[in-house]
């Protein structure tokens, strides 16, 4: 099973067969069950045999259903940890179903492991766009002074999938709010909006992220649009999974602190959309008393400076600026200064999991959610989740392969935000 998907793409197939065989010789399968103490003891004995007397570290990757997590971590903690090095535990989403279940799970995990042993992994946070957020801001003087309410009018965070392949029993139980918004979207906003950390140490960065999450105002249901795609075949309409599973989410978030007070962070994420798109769009205020206003056309908003950070497949950094069009007249045009990664860099882009797993090995935890970050994120979403669970929010149906619910356009207009073209 492993060999069917194993590749040597990073070193371009050099001695690939030999390297694959060497790797596969180091793999083994051992059945243990979820709460099988004997199985975990066998795993420990097998690892001891491989490690010998030398110092050894262990990483446990738990890709198990959430309902089995307590049993697995309990037996693992007592029967499979090494005493000759460090132990780290990787946990897949979801991190609870709501605030109470997440807090209960966190308390249990912290009774078995230290916080710095726990790595809650979200593969979407391993994208280069996320890692570049802080680099772009904190290492460029041209951006850092502008990063506040004084210059930024609004921020859009967009994540849309054109496919529905991720749908399944897991997604049916959680929906897009618990699956995508709670971790990926809120973590993206936290990294974008945080104050400069005192260092690049993971804990220093997580300290600043949690301050942002605690400052985000709890979501009001009237600032949220939820949708569900439908597939049409003739006269038949096939709704997604069940009437309570949102596949689209749009919202206006506000950070109540001195840097971001009043700046709407507009979020839009959905499945079955017209195209795959991962973007962060930062629109700046109009120039006060702009003497070229009459040369900008009837809609000044379209000529506003904008910084666009775009992820794969067309990874780029785009800066929209106004300039004079060539010719005798005085006509202004909004043009994009662009850095297209595929033109600039001839390098393999590692998979998100590759990036994050290497971070675990290195002990770099800044892209992994700490327990207090989890709690703060649930507090933001609790009002909306309660309304969903009580069936008090109607899901707006949208066409599969379309642009999403029309209600999202009205939400954007309500907050004076120009909807970015698809």
UniProtKB/TrEMBL annotation:
<dbReference type="GO" id="GO:0050661">
    <property type="term" value="F:NADP binding"/>
</dbReference>
<dbReference type="InterPro" id="IPR022675">
    <property type="entry name" value="G6P_DH_C"/>
</dbReference>
<keyword id="KW-0313">Glucose metabolism</keyword>
<comment type="function">
    <text>Catalyzes the rate-limiting step of the oxidative pentose-phosphate pathway, which represents a route for the dissimilation of carbohydrates besides glycolysis.</text>
</comment>
<dbReference type="InterPro" id="IPR022674">
    <property type="entry name" value="G6P_DH_NAD-bd"/>
</dbReference>
<comment type="similarity">
    <text>Belongs to the glucose-6-phosphate dehydrogenase family.</text>
</comment>
<keyword id="KW-0521">NADP</keyword>
<comment type="pathway">
    <text>Carbohydrate degradation; pentose phosphate pathway; D-ribulose 5-phosphate from D-glucose 6-phosphate (oxidative stage): step 1/3.</text>
</comment>
<dbReference type="Pfam" id="PF02781">
    <property type="entry name" value="G6PD_C"/>
</dbReference>
<dbReference type="InterPro" id="IPR036291">
    <property type="entry name" value="NAD(P)-bd_dom_sf"/>
</dbReference>
<dbReference type="InterPro" id="IPR001282">
    <property type="entry name" value="G6P_DH"/>
</dbReference>
<keyword id="KW-0560">Oxidoreductase</keyword>
<protein>
    <recommendedName>
        <fullName>Glucose-6-phosphate 1-dehydrogenase</fullName>
        <ecNumber>1.1.1.49</ecNumber>
    </recommendedName>
</protein>
<dbReference type="GO" id="GO:0006098">
    <property type="term" value="P:pentose-phosphate shunt"/>
</dbReference>
<dbReference type="GO" id="GO:0006006">
    <property type="term" value="P:glucose metabolic process"/>
</dbReference>
<dbReference type="Pfam" id="PF00479">
    <property type="entry name" value="G6PD_N"/>
</dbReference>
<feature type="domain" description="Glucose-6-phosphate dehydrogenase NAD-binding">
    <location>
        <begin position="12"/>
        <end position="132"/>
    </location>
</feature>
<feature type="domain" description="Glucose-6-phosphate dehydrogenase C-terminal">
    <location>
        <begin position="135"/>
        <end position="419"/>
    </location>
</feature>
<dbReference type="GO" id="GO:0004345">
    <property type="term" value="F:glucose-6-phosphate dehydrogenase activity"/>
</dbReference>
<keyword id="KW-0119">Carbohydrate metabolism</keyword>
């Amino acid at each position: 099973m492993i060999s069917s998907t194993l590749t040597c793409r990073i070193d371009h197939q050099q001695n690939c067969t030999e390297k694959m065989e060497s790797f596969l010789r180091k793999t083994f399968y051992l059945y243990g069950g979820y709460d099988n103490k004997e199985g975990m003891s066998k795993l420990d004995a097998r690892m001891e045999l491989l490690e010998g007397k030398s110092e050894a570290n262990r990483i446990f990757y738990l890709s198990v259903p959430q309902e089995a997590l307590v049993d697995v971590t309990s037996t693992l903690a007592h029967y499979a940890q090494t005493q000759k090095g460090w132990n780290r535990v990787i946990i897949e989403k979801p991190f609870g179903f709501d605030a109470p279940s997440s807090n209960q799970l966190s308390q249990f995990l912290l009774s078995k492991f230290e916080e710095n042993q726990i790595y809650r992994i979200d593969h979407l946070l391993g994208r280069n766009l996320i890692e570049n957020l802080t680099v772009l801001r904190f290492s460029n003087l041209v951006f850092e002074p502008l990063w506040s309410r004084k210059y930024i009018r609004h921020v859009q965070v967009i994540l849309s999938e054109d496919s529905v392949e991720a749908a399944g029993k897991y997604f049916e139980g959680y929906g897009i709010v618990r699956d995508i918004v709670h971790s990926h979207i809120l973590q993206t906003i936290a990294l974008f909006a945080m104050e400069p950390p005192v260092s690049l140490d993971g804990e220093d960065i997580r300290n600043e992220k949690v301050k942002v999450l605690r400052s985000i105002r709890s979501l009001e249901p009237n600032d949220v649009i939820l949708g569900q795609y439908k597939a049409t075949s003739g006269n038949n309409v096939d709704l997604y999974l069940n009437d309570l599973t949102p596949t689209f989410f749009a919202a206006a978030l506000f950070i109540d602190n001195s840097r971001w007070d009043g700046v709407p962070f507009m979020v839009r994420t959905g499945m079955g959309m017209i195209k795959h798109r991962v973007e962060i769009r930062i629109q700046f205020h109009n120039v006060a008393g702009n003497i070229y206003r009459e040369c900008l056309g009837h809609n000044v908003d379209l000529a506003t400076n904008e910084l666009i950070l775009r992820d794969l497949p067309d990874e780029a950094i785009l800066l929209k600026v106004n300039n004079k069009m060539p010719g005798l007249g005085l006509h202004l045009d909004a043009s994009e200064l662009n850095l297209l990664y595929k033109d600039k860099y001839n390098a393999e882009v590692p998979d998100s999991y590759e990036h994050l797993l290497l971070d675990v090995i290195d002990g770099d935890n800044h892209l992994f959610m700490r327990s207090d970050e989890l709690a703060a994120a649930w507090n933001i979403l609790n009002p909306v989740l309660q309304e969903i669970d009580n069936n008090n929010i109607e899901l707006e149906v949208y066409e599969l392969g379309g642009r999403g619910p029309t209600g999202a356009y009205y939400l954007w207009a309500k907050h004076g935000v120009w909807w970015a073209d698809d």
